[in-house]
Amino acid sequence: MALLRKRRLTIKDKPDRFYDLRVVSERNLPKFRTKSTAYKVSFKDIEVRGLPQILQMLQLLFQSLIKDMTEFMKTDDLIRMSIQCPELDFPITIPFMKVAQLSAETLLREIERVLQSYEQFVLDSSLEIEITHVDMPKA
User: Fold this and answer.
1) Strands (E), 11-86
2) Which domain of life is it from (predicted)?
């Protein structure tokens, strides 16, 4: 009988294997062509060592998350993102911008700006992300 051994995920794995993304709630405002979706992101056991590898992993993770959450949106639609994690007293908010402009770099810069006053930010359990999406009419 073979025993299955649990393996930690590494940077060589596909980014979407590192997390589970689940829709918690959705709210539509048809009058304003707006939809608000709350997600829960649960991270899996990740093994990364060294600052360059950690930064690369965060880049890949956030790129993949953004792709998953904006998959059916048009590039000219507007999006706002709010991220809440247990360590923070208030959410990290990315103001409205075009979907095409939202990137992992944008997200990481805002996280870095907010976290300057905190000693640590642990990405080992889960985050709550709320996205407000405005479906822009075609010209």
Assistant:
1) 19-29, 34-43, 78-84
2) Eukaryota
Q: Is residue 128 part of a domain?
A: yes
Residue from 38, 45, 37 nearest 19 by CA? 45
* Within a domain: 116: yes
Contact (Cβ atoms closer than 8 angstroms) between residue 108 and residue 117: no
Identify whether 9 is part of a domain: no
Express each pLDDT in 51-81 by its tens digit. 677 778 888 888 999 999 999 999 999 999 9
CB 57 within 8 A of CB 43: no
Range of the domain at 66: 15-134
Angle of helix 104-115 relative to helix 51-69, nearest 10 degrees, comes to: 120
Q: Give CA angle at 102 (136, 61), nearest 5°.
A: 135
* Number of domains present in the structure of the chain: 1
Hey, what are 121's tokens?
């930010």
